[in-house]
Amino acid sequence: MARRETKAQQAERIRKILAALDREYGTEYRCYLNHETPWQLLIAVIMSAQCTDARVNIVTADLFRKYDTLEKFANADLKELEQDIHSTGFYHMKAKNIIACCRDLVDKHGGEVPRTIEELTALAGVGRKTANVIRGNIYNEPSIVVDTHVKRISRKLGLTKSEDPVKIEQDLMKALPRDHWILWNIHIITLGRSICIARRPKCGECFLREFCPGREDEG
After folding, report:
1. Which parts of the sequence bind [4Fe-4S] cluster (predicted)?
2. Among residues 137, 152, 168, which one ends one of the domains?
3. N or C: which end of the chain has fewer CB within 10 A?
4. Known binder of ligand: residue 196?
5. What is the DSSP track for 184-208?
6. What is the residue range of 182's domain?
7. 20: helix, coil or strand?
């Protein structure tokens, strides 16, 4: 956009963006990583770093049958676990973090996944992004997960100018209503995978086109 928006104009544009996303994708909370328990989701999210959710789901289908309790992960053999999760990439560090994380869950948290950002980020392999996934999906705590899609598309839509995930999270928390924090993660990931693809955005097909300062105009 050539001219600068007033705060009121930006707020109205954001309202229209959220309404369009709700119409297109609905307002149901959903998680792309298969899990039955909070600790399974935590392990799946640790494995999802630099890996697709689809690949993680393939691996966890067998993994969660083999290690069907938190204690089995806590007591797992490192080399064996590395082989079990090899195809997710960065398997040495992931296996090491999973074992250390599960030991802490058993020894320090009574087998429960904690809910505060401070307790979660104290666990091995758990950064702010992972912690917010847990808080949003397990505890329904309003949170914004800044992954690559959320970072790129939020910048494109003019909701932040930052490259820093923590600053982007703060900017989005100010710009978006609290009841859409979790939905923003879900909607923008879906948009980023289907339409606003990093290397070849389909701007001509995008239902947010008229509200997007970063759109690519054809011709």
Report:
1. 196, 203, 206, 212
2. 137
3. C
4. yes
5. HHHHHHHHHHHTS-SSS--GGG-TT
6. 7-29+144-211
7. helix
The helix (run of H) or strand (run of E) holding residue 116 is none
212 a known binding residue?
Answer: yes
Which residues have a Cβ under 8 Å from the Cβ of 56 and sit 6 or more positions away? Answer: 33, 44, 47, 48, 88
pLDDT of residue 53: 93
| pTM score, whole prediction | 0.85
Is there a single domain that holds both residue 100 and residue 160? no
Neighbours of 51 (CB within 10 A): 17
Q: What is the pLDDT of residues 147-205, one digit of tens each?
A: 999 999 999 999 999 999 999 999 999 999 999 999 999 999 999 999 999 999 999 99
One domain, residues 103 and 158: no
Q: How far is CA 161 from CA 140, 158, 170, 172, in A?
A: 28, 7, 12, 11
Contacts of 3 (CB under 8 A, 6+ apart): none
